Amino acid sequence: MSTVIIDCDPGIDDALALFLAAGSVELNLLAITTTAGNRPAAITAGNGRKLMDLAGRPDLAVHAGAERPLSGQPARCNLVHGEDGLGGVLPGTPAALESEHAALALVRHLQQAPAGSIDLVAMGPLTNLALAELLVPGILQRTRRLSIMGGALRVPGNITPAAEFNFYADPLAADLVMRSGAAIHLYPLDVTHQAVMSPAWIDTIGGLSNRCGQAAAAMLRQYAAMDPLLHDVCPVAGLLRPALFAEQACSVEVDWRPGLTEGYALMQLDQQAAAACTIQAATIVDNEGLLSLVLEKISGLP
Predict the structure, then answer these.
(1) For residue 278, what pLDDT is reported?
(2) N or C: which end of the chain has fewer CB within 10 A?
(3) Which of 122, 90, 92, 91 is CA-nearest to residue 106?
(4) What are the residues whose beta carbons fall under 8 Å from the beta carbon of 204, sequence distance 6 or more?
């Protein structure tokens, strides 16, 4: 069993990834940490709490985190997921969150647990992870595996021609984490563009009788019209079923300078760089296997 912390910015595709994790007995969820990203920090934190409660995990700690990127500039949010981040599917006020900041929670858990015993999954801007690394240099190297959805290596970005949204939202944090020396498994747009959901698959989820299946289908029917890709599901699926993905060793640097290439992820694949690097970038996914896994795990939720 893998002990897991998930850092996220829910977000509809985050919701599917959280449902996948919550429905997987193979994963021992330790905490959820949230950051500004798809929506401002207060909204994403509340969404994390709502989603875990819906999935039958009111016991799981949810920690709100960074409200803005390391640069101190206002958060770069979007409206792809609706004003509330979940397409209006889960109205109401969320239950109380933990008082401890997400970055401090990450440091505490990683310091208290034996090195190499926690898997950290990040599927939003990397500000919380970068803050933890700045607070305690080397802390990210204590993870067993750091699975990150972010970057666009050989394909155009989805927020600018050069950049994927998570890296663009806090490029300085992304560069710091890429250079941290942690054992990173990166899921860039190159592979998430292959994680395509069909209307028929969404209808199959909607045919489930459980509340999580109904909520997932309602969210996805809105989201898929704009972006029919399961970006954030990929790093969780990679923990559960590594064989679904092919990977390539590389090093990655992120351009954090303001300008046209801000957030651009430069990948180096030469043999010398690959031999010394700690990053494995996913290049191919078995999409049918991925969709089957998500459907299986959501069907087992409340």
Answers:
(1) 84
(2) N
(3) 122
(4) 295
